[in-house]
Amino acid sequence: MSMISMYLMADMTEEAKTPTKTATGAAAARPSPADRRMLAVALTATFMASFDLFVVNVATEALRTDLRASDAALELVVAGYALAYAAGLITGGRLGDRFGYRRMFVTGMLAFTVTSLLCGLAQDAGQLVAARLAQGLAAAVMVPQVLSLVTARYPAEHRGRATAWYGATAGLGSIAGQLLGGVLLQADVFGLGWRSVFLVNVPVGAAAALLAFRALPALSGARRGFDGPGALGVTLLLALLLIPATLGREAGWPAWTWLCLAAAVPAGWATWRRQRALRARGGEPVLDPVLLRNRPYVTLLVAVGLFQTYFGGYMFALALLLQSDLGLGPFTAALVFLPQAVLFSAGALASGRLTARFGSRSPLLGGVLVLAGLTLLAGLLALSDSPGAAALLPALALNGLGNGLLLPPLIGAALSRVAPTSAGAASGLLNTAQQAAGSLGVALLGALWFTWGAVPVCAASAALAATACVLLRRTR
Fold first, then answer.
1. Minimal CA–CA distance to 198: which of 343, 329, 53, 14?
2. Beta carbons of 449 and 96 less than 8 angstroms apart
3. Which of 17, 163, 226, 290 has a CA between 20 and 30 Å from the CA of residue 406?
């Protein structure tokens, strides 16, 4: 039976307008032009969330000068968005299941547009931190709907290319965040300074929300009651884990960080018990125990988490290497990042076709390229404390292409193991794992960098990427 024949519409009028595909026809059908338009519009959310994750990095010095922001405030401006984003993703996915993917996409996009405007209008560091937290929560509402729509609309055999575009778009967002952010600051558009990196979202977000009304189908999963206490419990658990992991090293690991980590154990136990009890009563928990009993999905979820732990820490360490050790400015450092990011996007776009033709050998080739790039980078840094930026480009190119060939197949393989009625929960959990693991990678590999330097970071990154490849191989 086809997976996409089981979807439910968000309301009766849309149900009447949208034809239901039969089980056999849906399994055989290729994505229609309407499905491709849906994907193009939906990916604006992926681009914008990735863009704002990276763009603020180039504006930290301007924020320090203009808003007289302290180091702690700057860290919250950078990390607060990622923390709120990660903490809200599972809830955002479940909201799509409950109220419809199009409805929550548009709601999240409009909220992201408004909070971007608030970031651009902030008059002091406290206002900017609050707006960034709200912006992260808005991203957590809109982004899970992208993979939910792919899972519910695309047959399993065609999801590889859709997730390849998802990975490529995320890569392009990171490129634009680093490069366009530097251009906007250097150009000082309309004398706005750092405010332009946030205000640029306003026209883009408004246009994307308008297009979404026409291009996105009103698909949803099971329309049951929303588990509000469960959403709060999961969000609290992630906050107790991620806030100390992100801020602890900079703060010197005071007592509150250890108290938060200790409190995460009973909070997690209580949340899990309530989720199991709700499922036993026939309810729809935010963190679905049935989904977590899906062994192939959970295995690939762990693989994605390991990859993102490596990738988040690697990108953080690379930024430190280029700007702190080699003394490059933000715009010049972004130019060094550019070939790696372009090759990541190219690899991601090619990964769907290559995986369809060669199976698991294609992403495993990506893993081999990542290991080769990390080994070459470690060798260069071991031979010289300060190699020229040009000398790093071959290693960065190998990493970029390898990451692009590896990450989208990991995501696509995980989503191919779930039914459309669990699309919101599965994509929300997958996105949460990515963001949480990325924050954890910054904390762990960042501490490794500050203690022992770049070569151990390369070794740890290689171990994490290799383990992700092993897990992917086991679930082929």
1. 53
2. no
3. 290
Q: Mean pLDDT in each 10-residue stretch from start to end of the chain (476 residues)?
A: 26 33 44 84 92 80 81 74 82 82 93 96 91 93 88 74 78 78 80 90 94 82 67 83 77 88 92 87 78 86 91 80 75 79 83 75 87 92 79 91 87 78 73 78 80 88 92 80
Q: CA angle, 435 as apex, 279 and 101 as ends, to 5°?
A: 55
**Centroid of chain to Cα 5:** 28
Helix (H) or strand (E) segment spanning residue 264: helix 255-280
Distance CA 136, CA 118 (A): 13
C-alpha distance from residue 367 to each of 233, 361, 405, 469 (Å): 36, 10, 8, 6
At 253, the amino acid letter reads W
- Containing 107, the helix (H) or strand (E) segment is helix 101-121
Model confidence, pTM: 0.72
- What tokens were used for 225? 């009651």
Structure tokens at 113: 């547009």
Strand, helix or coil at 96?
A: helix
Token pair belonging to 247: 């801020």
Q: Which of 130, 127, 151, 125 is nearest to 39 (CA)?
A: 151
Residue 94 phi/psi, 5-degree rounding, is -70, -35
Q: Which residues pair with 9 in a beta bridge?
A: 219
Looking at the chain, how many residues does it have? Answer: 476
